[in-house]
UniProtKB/TrEMBL annotation:
<keyword id="KW-1133">Transmembrane helix</keyword>
<keyword id="KW-0812">Transmembrane</keyword>
<keyword id="KW-0472">Membrane</keyword>
<keyword id="KW-0813">Transport</keyword>
<feature type="coiled-coil region">
    <location>
        <begin position="228"/>
        <end position="290"/>
    </location>
</feature>
<dbReference type="GO" id="GO:0005525">
    <property type="term" value="F:GTP binding"/>
</dbReference>
<keyword id="KW-0653">Protein transport</keyword>
<dbReference type="Pfam" id="PF04548">
    <property type="entry name" value="AIG1"/>
</dbReference>
<dbReference type="GO" id="GO:0046872">
    <property type="term" value="F:metal ion binding"/>
</dbReference>
<dbReference type="InterPro" id="IPR006703">
    <property type="entry name" value="G_AIG1"/>
</dbReference>
<keyword id="KW-0175">Coiled coil</keyword>
<keyword id="KW-0547">Nucleotide-binding</keyword>
<dbReference type="GO" id="GO:0015031">
    <property type="term" value="P:protein transport"/>
</dbReference>
<keyword id="KW-0460">Magnesium</keyword>
<dbReference type="GO" id="GO:0009707">
    <property type="term" value="C:chloroplast outer membrane"/>
</dbReference>
<dbReference type="InterPro" id="IPR045058">
    <property type="entry name" value="GIMA/IAN/Toc"/>
</dbReference>
<protein>
    <submittedName>
        <fullName>IAN7 protein</fullName>
    </submittedName>
</protein>
Amino acid sequence: MDSPSAKKVNLILVGSTGQGKSTLGNFLLKPDMDHLWEEKDRTFQVGEDRFSCTQQCAVSTSADGSVTIMDTPGLNESHEKDLGYMINVVKTAHVLGSVHAVILVMKTESRMDQTYKDTVLYYQKLFGADTFAANLVIVHPDFKKSSKKYKGHPDKIQRILQQSSEDVQNLLGLKDAPPVRCLNSLPETDQELKEQLTERQQILQFARANLAAAPLAGLRVPKTEAVKAKHSKEIARKEATQAQLTDQKAQRMKIPDSARERLDSINHEIKEQKSEMERLNKHLAAYDTDELVEVACVPKVVRAGMGKVFEFHLRSPVTIRDVTYSTWDTASYSETFRSDREVHGSFERGLGRLFHSGTLWVKAWGIKREYFAEIIATLKGSLNEVKQHLRRAYDEKMSLEKEYANGLDLPDVKCLEQQIAEVESEIKRLSEPFFASIEEAEREAQEMLQSKL
Ligand SMILES: Nc1nc2c(ncn2[C@@H]2O[C@H](COP(=O)(O)OP(=O)(O)O)[C@@H](O)[C@H]2O)c(=O)[nH]1
Ligand SMILES: [Mg+2]
């Protein structure tokens, strides 16, 4: 049948009940009339009609070992039972280990109904969007090429394929349109069977071409709609409990209104004083530096034709560190006296330059910190006041907190806090889209069945 050296492939069949998954599985495993038609010979059980089908998840391998197929149940046939079936799917997938192709089984020309969509979307979550996107092929398993309606209408077949591909692409939000294959997995004559073998090979070939089988070991069980509905009710109850407990804790820890108000106003004051301190410090930093600033200046206005020598007396309020003067090529500068805070001297204008006019100047430079000493002293005074203010506020805050802190240490408050934390983690667990473990899912399935009884 298949060449023994052929690469081994794992396939998973997905679709709602009655789409022909089990029949297709049998055909892919062993395309043989007895195997397909004799009930006792079939590998996967086939439903009599759309509604009576086994929901068990089954895995089987072809005689030569080259093809392993996992048949999965559809979803939403019975809300309470779904979860149990899906746990089984995850467990079986763990055993399968990896998958080369996920086959979406869809009857030809049957647009997807809600049950189909629910099923496929659920399995997308279960196997992971990446596995679904990379390894997906749609198969119409009941396609009769010889049927009158297709004969001579290749465009019609083309439209059917395109429609299925688009529908699935939109439903699953896939980047690329998935490939579609058609075959008749329940041929009625040997001749028909023979005709289907090529298509079968092509489906297997598609799976073999996938070099990177998607791993299935880490799969978790997604919550079914029924579980989500149940959990959201539980969450509502837990949230109410949480609110009650939080309220109890607040009551227990309550401090008198007068003290609360005082604490609020202290906190407010601390905030204000801190920003005032910041403002003062910034100001101070601007003045309290070694940089040189102009501390005195004598301007001498010189008109054309007016005198030859211009005397100046420069006095500075702080120690002079440097002297600068205008460099006018028509007048020369000279000093007659210089002390710590004074400079005397003159500018002499050359006779040939009597027609020049303008301003001559002498500037004294001193250290900024010395020049602005008074402002700096005032700023430092204000800063000290602010610091004292802050210290008093902190002291009062501390003593208030100490007085009422006992309330925060009460053992019953501790106990309430623990209860609140427990409810919180329970809410978190209930909000998760997946069960954390198979065991957790099994407990839930058990509970759901029991509550139904
Ligand atoms: N005519 C025809 N009937 C099919 C085909 N595949 C499945 N069926 C029928 O559809 C019904 C459901 O098939 P089954 O394989 O159990 O579907 P599953 O629930 O998806 O596994 C059964 O009555 C099958 O005989 C097919 O290719 N052609
Ligand atoms: Mg079936």
